[in-house]
Amino acid sequence: MARRKIVAGNWKMNMTPSEAVKLAEELKPLVASEEVDVVYCVPAIDIIPVVEAVKGTNVAVGAENMYFEEKGAYTGEISAAMLVDAGVKYVIIGHSERRDYFKEDDALLNKKVKKAFEAGLTPILCCGESLELREMGVTMDWIRFQIKSDLVGITADQVKTMVIAYEPIWAIGTGKTATTEQAQEVCKGIRECIAEMYDAATAEAVRIQYGGSVNAGTAADLFSQPDIDGGLVGGASLKAEFGQIVNYK
Ligand code: 13P
């Protein structure tokens, strides 16, 4: 069965609650699609108003982060159960900005992936290499390490439902999209890694996105690659352009 495309916006630390509702209203007619799953991953404080704003549409809401503990004395953190209760369906785990600025390592991310599944959230697990690693020629080794360590203890049935986002760090927010060939090559490599870790059926089912300066001009080429099942979009998800990315065909 063909994998359904999934295009997610990562709003990052943008949009106050009132701006978020306005953006969701503006995008409503533009992101309507029968064929593509559409997700807005929004700042925690925007979750409740955005869930309300997209009610009755094809848009699902995701979080940009969560903590792995059930509840308790973890000042400033948000639990998986809180996200579920607020109407969240997806959660980004291991974005490079969290890995770099907030020192999240693969052992921690593995705990978050486990907790997300336990709570009934769909993880969007991010991986990606720096320019330095790419130039050293170790891109795929690095990404295989990330995938393998982030998925320790995760079952094939869980992996089949999740989303993996390949985001080369050098392409994020730089306007420098990876070439279609570079993006396809790594997404294929991720699928091969999943096949080795699990089986062919799991590799066939898992959805793999490309992220990094995706725009209305590059989406069609990227998303029509055999191993690219959509995108994780930063800057362009905050504009009307996101509608063109969703309806890339
Ligand atoms: P940009 O689309 O702004 O490059 O961001 C990509 C990204 O980090 C999505 O998670």
Residue share in helix: 40-55%
The radius of gyration computed from the alpha-carbon positions, rounded to a whole number of angstroms, is: 17 Å
* Rough outline: globular
List the uncertain runs: none
Q: What structural category do the secondary elements indicate?
A: alpha/beta
Distance between the termini: 20 Å
Could you tell me the strand content as a percent range? 15-25%
CATH architecture call: Alpha-Beta Barrel
Kindly identify the CATH topology.
TIM Barrel
CATH C-level class is: Alpha Beta
Strand order across the biggest sheet? Answer: 1-2-3-4-5-6-7-8
Return the string of H and E elements: EHEHEHEHHEHHHEHHEHEH
What does this structure look like?
The protein is of the alpha/beta class and 249 residues long. It has twelve helices and eight strands. Strand 1, helix 1 and strand 2 form a beta-alpha-beta unit. The mean pLDDT is 97. Residues 10, 95, 167, 172-173, 211-214, 232-236 line the site of 1,3-dihydroxyacetonephosphate.
